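SEQUENCE-TO-STRUCTURE ENTRY
===========================

Subject: a protein chain together with a token-level encoding of how that chain folds.

Sequence line: the amino acid chain in single-letter code, read from start to end.

Question of interest: how does this chain fold, as expressed in backbone structure tokens?
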Amino acid sequence: MNGWKDWRQKRKGISAGKDLTDTGGRKPFQITRLNRRAQKILTILTGTALTLICCLLAERYARGGREDAIQTLGAAEAGSVLIIDYHQVLPTQEDVEAAQAAGESSAITLAAFKEDLEWLMENGAGFVLPSELKRAVQGLSALPSKAVMLTFTGGYESFYTVVWPQLREAARNSNTEGALSPKGCVGVIGAEAELYSGSVEKEITTSRLSWNQIRQLDQSDCVEIASQGYDLCLDAQEWMKPVQPAGRLSSLMQLLGLSPESKSDIAKENLLLYYSAVGKDSLTMGEKMRQTLFHEADAFFVPDGCGGTETDQALVQSGITMTMLAGSCDGPLGGEDPEENPGWNLITDHASLQSMTRLLRPNEGSLEDVAAAYFEDYSS
């Protein structure tokens, strides 16, 4: 018992800040309450500082990267990319006619899409995705010659049932690997994905992708998911009807006095309101994609008639570093001065990833009719 009492007495002495001595009278160390509190505070401050540093580094070099992080890595040598935009790709001509009657004038048949892929591969197209354009800008990789990106606007379910199987089949049948393997980037609208993730009637000419289908596509090597915002580019009351690409975003621009060219006398209050509305919609979609896919989109498809400096700035402020304008059926390759505006996109630095043009594949004729100039430019 004396041993137990002696031990308790020594412990009380240590707690009271008294010296701790051994049997030889030496003082190996001294522990006080103040020393213990100081050690705890130092440990907490050190852990907090390390956590903040890690968060800042993760934010700086997150997927897609911030503008300053991209610029510090240096730009790759100048390259170019032709972006070909599709909407609906359907199995039969009857399906195409039904889609056109429902308002999708750009629908084409699967047979026409197969011919497009065959022609592109025969001409040595190097297929790329948005993430690969970003890596090229960062100087981490080089763009292939005759770089081509296939985009699919609208998030139609036909991409899942018709296009995706065709991309995989073309990749399996190809004798080459890497850039020459067909790939596609499909844009989705968050509100429509929510709607079609529920119990709704589906029809091949109008149905959109569900989040489950989007998740499966995102796991494929030949597909990337682009954002078309959450619901700002929609008229929320018309979800079940054929919708035009503009919707409420276009109405908001008109209300605030904005145009694609950006009026110089726009009121500052209206501009801030526009930035806030577009940024909120983009961030809502980004959060939904993080919850579902565990990452955000590398690219944003700007609705028809809503492109311009102000839209790009609003999206950049919300973290979007790559924007693509809606394509035109006339084709950007038919300009009056192709030397100044050839219709394809020069990729040189971060700024070149903003307001990139897309060539909308017309539902009549062939892709060769409108895209041959791009490949002829390389061979000349």
In short: Residues 60-76, 235-246 have pLDDT under 50 and may be disordered. The longest strand covers residues 79-86.
